[in-house]
Specification:
By secondary structure, the protein is of the alpha/beta class. It has two domains: 257 residues, Rossmann fold (3-Layer(aba) Sandwich); 82 residues, formyl-coa transferase, domain 3 (2-Layer Sandwich). The protein has 17 helices and 13 strands. Strands 5-2-1-6-7-8 form a six-stranded parallel β-sheet, sandwiched between helices. The longest helix has 24 residues.
Amino acid sequence: MSISAENPASRPLDGIRILDFTRVLAGPMSTALLADLGAEVVKVEPPQGDDYRAIGPMRNGQSALFTVMNRNKQSLVLDLKNPQAAEIVQQLAQKADVVVENFRPGVAERLGIGPEKLRSLNPKLVYVSVSGFGQTGPLAHRPAYDIIVQAMSGLMEATGEADGAPTLVGEAVSDVVAGLFASWATLAALLQAQRTGQGQHVDVAMFDTTLTFLATSVSRYLFTGQPARRVGNRHPLSAPFGVYKARDGHFALAVLNKKLFDATVLAMGLPQLVDDPRFASDETRSANEPELRRAIEGWSCQHDVADVVATLDAAGVPVAPIWNIEQALESPQIRSRGLLHEVDDERLPGLRLPTQPVHFNGSAPNRSERAPALGEHTELLLGSWLGRSREAIDALRQAGALGATDAAPH
């Protein structure tokens, strides 16, 4: 591992080498975030490729989800059921700083690429396992997708209208949160390895990380013993803190203290609510939320969303219109922040891809490169990392270690 502290034009993770055996969303997102910052991420794929290559929406034969989650990576195809492929991984691991995988627990060991084996060859290696329920515990063997973890974590039970059914959140939050924690954990383990010379096995579970993500629900349960309840488009503990009606749509309002509450109702022309004992504290306002909502919407329903937002924003109250993803991504704010980068990809003219969202003002800009074609870098990587000749690579292909003999990348 070599990170240049002197070169201000470098990226934070320049020189870090990562072998990425992950597929679908959580694992690939974690390594994409690291690749944005300069890490060399080698995506090791089976001959048929990551499942996400075939998941829509598609454009010009390319998957949107695969393209976004595997930006800035290189693709190396190995048939891990072939003993020679396992030997190649073992050799690559000796050149790497990090291995990230999201096999079911036990699968990597059976393939000969588990953490004990690879770390015996490279003691400084950070080996990150991302799974549904972790490497230990009675549920460790179970497969998990985002909806499964949302269902079991309490997230779905706490989401939806009070008199309605548990509701799936409109994003793969358990996958995303696990990916974020995996990237954070990778960096923490790399820092320790740099300091001590010893890597470690990092165990990241979607179930654990989603429960940690549920900060409000967990805090409430630990103090009251009560699970979160569905309350619809409002905060479960505070008021007015939620979504409210206006004449031509809805807006979001976030009031968390008495000073903001007073500013809100005065801006609405409701001074009588300032000294109303029902709304004297956050707790009493939450207990009397239906009455407070009627008062607020009695005013807001006489105005368009734009006017409501302008009035309350001028009073210093946190308020917002309800945007869709297009409005958010194309907003002047996000354009100014540079979250989307234009990327050269002859397969996808005009392609824009997101990058990790943190700004490092002492570093070079984030990397902005397309996702790889399946196996595109196989020969290059075997040559540059392991010094394999063209003849040796052809022999591996003939032996089936690189997949079907007619599957050589062009």
